[in-house]
Amino acid sequence: MTDPFNPYLPEVATILETVQETHNIMTFRVRFDDEAKMKAFTFEPGQVGQLSAPGIGESTFVINSPPTRMDYLQFSVMRAGEVTAKLHTLTAGDKIGVRAPLGNSFPVADMKGKDIVFVGGGIGMAPLRTLFLYMLDNRADFGKIRLLYGARSPLDMAFSAELPEWTGRSDIETTLTIDREAEGWQHKVGLIPNVLLEMAPAADNCVAITCGPPIMIKFTLEALKKLGFADEQIVTTLEKRMKCGIGICGRCNIGTSYVCVDGPVYTYAQLKQLPNEL
Amino acid sequence: MAAVKYIPREKLPEWLKALAAQSRVLVPVEEGGSVVFRQYDPARAPVFGSDATAPPKGAVFPASQELFSYAYGKEGEDHAPTLKLDPKTEAQPTVVFGSKPCGARGFLIFDRVYMGKKFPDPYYIAAREATVFVTMACATVENTCFCHWVGSGPADAAGSDVLLTPVEGGYTVEAVSEKGAKFLDNPALADGAAKAAEAEAVKKASRDALGEAPDIASSPAALLALFDDMEFWRDQSDKCVSCGACTYLCPTCYCFSITDEGTGTAGRRMRSWDACMHFQFTLEASGHNPRPTKAHRLKNRVGHKFSYYPTLHDGLIACCGCGRCVKSCPVSVDIREIVQNAVAKAKG
User: Fold this and answer.
1) Structural domain contains residue A4
2) CB-nearest partner of B260 from A5, A9, A54
């Protein structure tokens, strides 16, 4: 007999592995303790979950592993408050709660057959990673794939263990950039929006997906507009305080739209339709 | 509705005692100058005349409620960490006896959200199904009442199971729901046909006393049009002190927070009422706050009730017009004024 669905009750999961990505970003690879539930679990790229440290609380993070790789669910956590500080003390073998999947997902069906440009800054690479890897795992369904990933310095670059693989693939074009020159750095130097303009991806039949710090998003959007991308061709994700994650508690709503249910993935066209409360 | 029944005033205690024998019965009682819902005690006479200071919202949606308990432990020879979560969704059979129609109507607004298709709430559903609302039509109205603005009225049965109407010597009793129909199977209740006309007259008199409702059909569009007009919202919120009385006393406010309480190894996760009028409500871990001023917060509160919720739920206004927010506001912020101001401003 299965329990009736309880949207507030997390699934107990075990941390299989942690990776210290940067000084303040830690990645968690987790697996539900209930093997049947782990096997039955499905999600779409871009969906989020609430990681729960009972006794402290829970916070929202994107599931940044793709649904094509289900050995574990991966979340990357930037330390910013009580819950994240607690999560950062955990290690392999520890138990956490996972309430997922929540929110909407990237419009993958609309992206099929198109060229793709990913523009990620710092922790913003996490929501891109799930879609990026999903596309690599379904490579034939998509056109040209380009990734522009930037951070302030090499030490601020998450997923550094994977970068050699990404830059080494011949079927995608990966550009890494840091804001200022650093010793030993062999890739690009420059601010993300400027590097994007240099790359000058063609807007025809192309979708741009961008995530990162608000200031970076602002100038990246300007750059994309200059390159001819229409509002519908630009996809991003909103970060807003999500408490319940199921569209009730009233914190994340912007007018009639609840970011935790109607988002967090929005096209720029959809964002411009929302009232101004960000 | 089914056949009308009648109960003489002097037989009410008998009925209440019978109910209390098998359910928790909540009745309005006077307490420190306020009228609040408390468990029925024969030694303490219920106060049925005026509206309770606080609605019976807590009967179904407690001010604080345990979602689940948690316990960390170790097991096996290698002391592997464990975590057990134990949810508590059971609800106690309850009768809310003597609420005014506005207090029960609040659950119409709750139902659409908490009994939604995507995330049905097991705590709310259990409590809602376990609770019977025996509601009392209003024989008198107050100048803060505006239920007729929002599609309700002094004898509105929406959200209730049984409707009582005060008549000479007692009350007529009408079943509103299936739950309510079963409820009327009681020898203390006599046939009420002879009192039906008087009951209808009482209902009509109360409705007439409220007068005509203003036309606020355009409020959803008006409030959305004023979303970026912060000067308007600063004017409306100027005197607000962000105390949250309006939200805590509102029968339709359903927002909450979730917190963990306990020691490092065991405790519980609680869901508690929260207030969107508080600064901390939308404060993010980064320090950013999308609703930083009381103008933003009032805009969201009024917008939610008269614009966002109706837009999402077939035009149903998320307000019962009970007037508690008007009455309880220490600086007399009046939501009726705000809505009318918004409609007028969007029009002109």
Assistant:
1) no
2) A54
